[in-house]
């Protein structure tokens, strides 16, 4: 029976953070600065056309950095060396990731249009699509299907896991935001840890 331990995932995430405190603090500071700059440009731009263009560029840039973060999480779980430059390593799968993110958003949006519950269920079921794109070099549709297979049988537990991560990060934010420097890395690694735990248990025909 497919299963994973929430406690084990969080514990692994915490150990990964405490053994790389400096790395993660620098990583999050850099991520924060890089994502704040486009926001400031958008805020101080008066022309509507230019503002829309900047919003699109900003979203694409955040997608690019997100790929790097996911890669870092996976590398930490795998025991590989990580470096700040990994944040900018999303180029090879960037277009596929963007298409996957759009497809994921449309599917989840359709679920929320029907009712809130289907939207939440789809979010949980398909949440690992990005990992299959980044880690297995799958196409958007294939990655969506792979995530559905990966999460089958453990979706309620994954829902509880995501709630736990949400609460942990809320606490981190309440601690003068400083707590997020710990809770975000813990969450990043814990999610990747669960992905790796569920991979060998899936019946989906995964391709490298």
From TrEMBL:
InterPro entries, sorted: DUF7847, DUF975
Domain of life per record: Bacteria
Pfam families linked to this entry: DUF7847
Keywords of this entry: Membrane, Transmembrane, Transmembrane helix
All copies of domain DUF7847, residue ranges: 66-194
Transmembrane segments: 20-42, 54-74, 94-126, 162-195
PANTHER family, sorted: MEMBRANE PROTEIN, MEMBRANE PROTEIN-RELATED
Name by which UniProt lists this protein: DUF7847 domain-containing protein
Organism the protein comes from: Candidatus Methylumidiphilus alinenensis
């Amino acid at each position: 029976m497919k299963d994973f331990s929430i406690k084990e995932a969080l514990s692994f995430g915490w150990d990964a953070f405490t053994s790389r405190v400096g790395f993660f603090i620098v990583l999050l500071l850099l991520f924060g600065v890089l994502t704040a700059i486009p926001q400031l440009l958008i805020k101080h731009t008066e022309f509507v056309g230019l503002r829309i263009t900047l919003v699109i560029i900003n979203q694409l840039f955040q997608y690019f950095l997100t790929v790097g973060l996911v890669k870092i999480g996976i590398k930490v779980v795998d025991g590989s060396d990580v470096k700040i430059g990994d944040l900018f390593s999303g180029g090879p799968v960037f277009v596929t990731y963007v298409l996957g993110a759009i497809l994921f958003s449309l599917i989840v949006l359709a679920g929320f249009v029907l009712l809130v519950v289907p939207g939440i269920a789809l979010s949980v079921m398909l949440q690992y699509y990005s990992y299959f794109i980044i880690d297995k070099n799958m196409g958007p549709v294939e990655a969506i299907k792979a995530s559905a297979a990966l999460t089958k049988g453990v979706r309620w537990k994954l829902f509880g896991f995501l709630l736990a991560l949400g609460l942990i990060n809320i606490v981190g934010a309440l601690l003068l935001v400083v707590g997020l420097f710990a809770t975000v890395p813990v969450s990043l690694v814990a999610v990747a840890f669960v992905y790796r735990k569920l991979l060998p248990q899936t019946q989906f025909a995964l391709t490298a």
